């Protein structure tokens, strides 16, 4: 979804050109989240060169907004700089700039709807926003009655205008007493409903920024620049909040990708926290939700002390390396990402009795999970498909009924969740809006909540009782690839851990552990099909539709393969449970429609052979995915094309089988001329409903 970024330099001189580049690069790091317009706000040229804090004036900041990509914004900014003769060499010892990439939810992609949104022509208050304000129409109607004029169709515009309204009323009532920036923002928050992450900048509070959140992700990065002759750049973690006058740079961002190149010292902002950056210090207030009428007394708050954490990621992880696209890189990284996912979790000490798994985040809760009335998997999109792929093995090894829920549908139905249930929440980002709401719903109903996510410190990781990080590494491409396969592996290990106390399935568990050890090598083997998938993509480039049939473990593979083609290649594709073929889908079959049938060796193999014969009898244009050596036996005619993949233990076969479909989707997209990393209308992290 939207990406927000801010940069504040304190007691360190930075030229305007440098500040602009930091803001632009921050937005580039957030491009993968999906967007259709972008904007920034910086201070106007109202001070002497290299001015100090004592030279502050209250001239309106400069706001630049542009529809299209970030490079369009960069071009328009420098064009306006040239026209206005803005001095790029002007430097500031302290400066606060904000930036935003917008993914349209209210109002079409247009300059007027881009962020930062402002309180009016004087830009007294400016806001960048990720999320949705659900009560914006009520707030807008109230503000219209008080004479405010709205220029955009966004829900965000009510926020800076509400801030100005609150500031004007509070200043009038204070009778000359100072109204702080925090007081204004807290009062604004009290009237907002929905999910949001916000950064405020104001001409009334120069060189200050305030960040707050409810539901949407936001973090603070801290970089102290105090030089130490022995140790270089020194950092005192226990004093980072203080206004000590030391030079430092502070960053606010929707996620770590935009911060890691500057610093690894971060603080993940919690829901309800208001983070105030002022005079080089950071103060944190905890907001208590207490709705009231406009102009009512300010909300009650409490001060919070928080510790910084260290990002466990490198800049290289978010670069493309020698690959042309992130999706291509992430597909080919899967042998390494799977190895990392399993590292330290598989136990095999030579003797067969020693083959097991260790999931440290779950060990204290395994007995409770085993006694569960049922296990409920909850997710959206690719994460849901990964859980679906793991459901059969979890049912087999645990003996506990397993049900599947799409997060939004569970909430719409208000489906029953019981205290005796274990609810497993699967999300790559750990910030998916519907999944988070479903998590709160399950917590309210007393269920044991388990999180499976790729993001340390995410909302799901923080708010579940226990969980497992998939450790797949940063995933930048909007279409999930390596996170999907790592999710399946983690959930297979979850099944092994839950069923680890059962003697009857010991041989089965040992075979799966052996299969997990060998899985990265098998994925390397299947990646050799890259050119073959490119050739197949060339044959399908002009097609309008694609069907994918699977069953058993590979029903999820059919859904996920079709989803990948749909997401990035913009081709209609549908994953179908092969057992349902005669109940409607068979009517679509003719000699023109390409059909992929997944028929690798497992318990459903003979049934898939029957499906292939029936499709062939109706002149279906068949593409069959089969185990190595089976092409001659499963392909009924010369017109049938085979994709041969390595055979592994059945519950891990979906990891192998999805890779050729990922490659097919990638090559189809490139050949059709679409943006493979930023598909039309889609966002990486869906943080709004």
From TrEMBL:
Keyword Transferase: yes
Gene3D superfamilies the UniProt entry points to: Glucose-6-phosphate isomerase like protein, domain 1 (3.40.50.10490), Glutamine Phosphoribosylpyrophosphate, subunit 1, domain 1 (3.60.20.10)
PROSITE patterns from the UniProt entry: GATASE_TYPE_2 (PS51278), SIS (PS51464)
Domain of life (superkingdom): Eukaryota
Pathway(s) of this molecule: Nucleotide-sugar biosynthesis; UDP-N-acetyl-alpha-D-glucosamine biosynthesis; alpha-D-glucosamine 6-phosphate from D-fructose 6-phosphate: step 1/1
All copies of domain Glutamine amidotransferase type-2, residue ranges: 2-280
Molecular function (Gene Ontology), one example: glutamine-fructose-6-phosphate transaminase (isomerizing) activity
Keywords associated with the record: Aminotransferase, Glutamine amidotransferase, Repeat, Transferase
GO biological process, one term: fructose 6-phosphate metabolic process
This protein's record includes keyword Transferase: yes
Pfam families: GATase_6, SIS
Name of this chain's protein: glutamine--fructose-6-phosphate transaminase (isomerizing)
Native organism: Cicer arietinum
GN (gene name): LOC101512277
């Amino acid at each position: 979804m939207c990406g927000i970024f801010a940069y504040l330099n304190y007691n360190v001189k930075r030229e305007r050109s440098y500040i602009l580049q930091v803001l632009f690069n921050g937005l580039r790091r957030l491009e993968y989240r999906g967007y259709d317009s972008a904007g920034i706000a910086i201070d106007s040229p109202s001070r002497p060169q290299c001015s100090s804090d004592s030279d502050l004036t209250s001239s309106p900041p400069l706001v630049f907004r542009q529809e299209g990509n970030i490079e369009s914004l960069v071009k328009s900014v420098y064009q306006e700089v040239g026209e206005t003769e803005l001095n790029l060499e002007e430097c500031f010892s302290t400066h606060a700039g904000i930036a935003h990439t917008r993914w349209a939810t209210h109002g079409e992609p247009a300059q007027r709807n881009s962020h930062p949104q402002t309180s009016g022509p004087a830009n007294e208050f400016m806001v960048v926003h990720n999320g949705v304000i659900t009560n914006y129409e009520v707030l807008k109607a109230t503000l219209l009655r008080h004479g405010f004029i709205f220029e955009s169709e966004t829900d965000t515009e009510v926020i800076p205008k509400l801030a100005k309204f609150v500031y004007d009323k509070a200043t009038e009532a204070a009778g000359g007493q100072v109204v702080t920036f925090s007081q204004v923002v807290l009062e604004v928050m009290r009237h907002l409903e929905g999910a949001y992450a916000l950064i405020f900048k104001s001409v009334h509070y120069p060189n200050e920024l305030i960040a707050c959140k409810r539901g949407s992700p936001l973090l603070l990065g801290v970089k102290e620049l105090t030089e130490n002759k022995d140790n270089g750049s020194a950092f005192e973690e226990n004093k980072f909040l203080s206004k000590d006058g030391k030079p430092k740079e502070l960053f606010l961002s929707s996620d770590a990708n935009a911060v890691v190149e500057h610093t690894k010292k971060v603080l993940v902002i919690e829901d309800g926290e208001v983070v105030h950056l002022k005079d080089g210090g950071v103060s944190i207030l905890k907001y208590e939700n207490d709705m009231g009428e406009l102009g009512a007394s300010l909300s009650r708050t409490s001060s919070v002390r928080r510790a910084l954490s260290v990002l466990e990621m490198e800049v290289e992880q978010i670069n493309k390396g020698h690959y042309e696209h992130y999706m291509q890189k992430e597909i080919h990284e899967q042998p390494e990402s799977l190895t990392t996912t399993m590292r330290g979790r598989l136990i095999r000490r030579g003797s067969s009795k020693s083959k097991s798994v260790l999931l440290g985040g779950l060990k204290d809760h395994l007995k409770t999970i085993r006694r569960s009335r049922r296990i409920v998997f909850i997710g959206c999109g690719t994460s849901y498909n990964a859980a679906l792929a793991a459901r059969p093995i979890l049912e087999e090894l645990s003996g506990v009924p397993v049900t599947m829920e799409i997060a939004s549908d569970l909430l719409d139905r208000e489906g029953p969740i019981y205290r005796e249930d274990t609810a497993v929440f699967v999300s790559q980002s750990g910030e998916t809006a519907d999944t988070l709401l479903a998590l709160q719903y399950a917590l309210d109903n007393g269920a044991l909540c388990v999180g499976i996510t790729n993001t340390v410190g995410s909302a799901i990781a923080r708010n579940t009782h226990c969980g497992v990080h998939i450790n797949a590494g940063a995933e930048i491409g909007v279409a999930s690839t390596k996170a999907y396969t790592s999710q399946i592996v983690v959930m297979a290990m979850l099944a092994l851990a839950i069923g680890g106390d059962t003697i009857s399935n010991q041989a089965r568990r040992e075979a799966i552990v052996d299969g997990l050890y060998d899985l990265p090598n098998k994925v390397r083997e299947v990646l050799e099909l890259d050119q073959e998938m490119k050739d197949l993509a060339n044959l399908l480039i002009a097609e309008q539709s694609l069907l994918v049939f699977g069953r058993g473990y590979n029903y999820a593979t059919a859904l996920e393969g079709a989803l990948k083609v749909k997401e990035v290649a913009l081709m209609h594709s549908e994953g179908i449970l092969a057992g349902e073929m005669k109940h409607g889908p068979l009517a679509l079959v003719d000699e023109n429609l390409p059909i992929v049938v997944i028929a690798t060796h497992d318990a459903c193999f003979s049934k898939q052979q029957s499906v292939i014969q029936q499709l062939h009898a109706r002149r279906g244009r068949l593409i069959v995915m089969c185990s190595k050596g089976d092409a001659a036996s499963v392909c009924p005619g010369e017109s049938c094309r085979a994709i041969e993949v390595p055979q592994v233990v059945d519950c891990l076969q979906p990891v192998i089988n999805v890779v050729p479909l990922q490659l097919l989707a990638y090559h189809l997209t490139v050949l059709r001329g679409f943006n493979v990393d930023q598909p039309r209308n889609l966002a990486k992290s869906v943080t709004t409903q």
